[in-house]
Fold this sequence. Notes:
By secondary structure, this protein is of the alpha/beta class. The chain has a single domain, classed as P-loop containing nucleotide triphosphate hydrolases (Rossmann fold). The chain is 46% helix and 13% strand. The protein contains nine helices and six strands, in the order βαβαβαβαβαβαααα. The protein has helices at 15-28, 44-50, 67-76, 92-98, 112-127, 144-154, 168-173, 180-183, 188-210; strands spanning 2-6, 34-38, 58-59, 81-85, 103-108, 132-136. α1 (15-28) crosses α2 and α1 (15-28) crosses α9. The protein is globular. Bound molecules: adenosine-5'-diphosphate and magnesium ion. Adenosine-5'-diphosphate binds next to α1 and α7.
Amino acid sequence: MKTIVLASQKGGAGKTTLAAHLAVAAELAGEGPCVLMDTDPQGSLAAWWNGRTDENPKFAPVTLKELPEKLELLDAAGFAYAFIDTPPAITESIRSVVAQADFVLIPTRPSPHDLRAVGQTVEMAVTAHRPFAFAVTQAKTNSRLTVQAMAALSEHGVVASAIIHDRVDFAASMIDGRTVLEVDQKGRSAGEVTQLWQFVKARIKESTKAR
Ligand SMILES: Nc1ncnc2c1ncn2[C@@H]1O[C@H](COP(=O)(O)OP(=O)(O)O)[C@@H](O)[C@H]1O
Ligand SMILES: [Mg+2]
């Protein structure tokens, strides 16, 4: 089982949205079974999952203390990917979650505030010797800011070529426990998520080979 941790010091960057969407994308691509875990005390991902009717991806309640053990159990149970959502901060507990990752995805909005804050999140992944990449999220279409953000981020690490744009369907789809992929599988938003999943999957494969 490969464990993907969504992390960023900034709240509102898209961690919870992407955890849910990537897990559903992996399931729809036939690359599951996937399991979601929520280590954010706010519990937004858990709340989203509770609103779902589809039982896949699965959800596993977890405490930080039991996380390593739980991941072993889920691996033994045959899950292909685990997606772990984290709170927006830099704390010892988040470091302990990042340490469990096979891959860390750092969602980042193309705003100066968010770009300034990425250093600390990157440092967490680097200190834990975990492979990581950025995903640009909530980008405005045809915005110079997006291009500039991608250039700035690429100085810190790999940036996913798939950009997630700012569209109401990302927020709206999650109200009743769904994702854009389940609302309009042929839509632009769904296409972006599918591409981002392909990117994450490829990066995990490469980093596994490199080790
Ligand atoms: N691509 C997007 N387009 C529009 N709204 C988005 C997008 N991604 C996230 N949002 C909205 O932005 C807010 C923050 O996203 P969320 O995933 O909760 O961030 P985080 O978990 O990093 O705090 C939520 O209200 C969410 O619905
Ligand atoms: Mg969140």
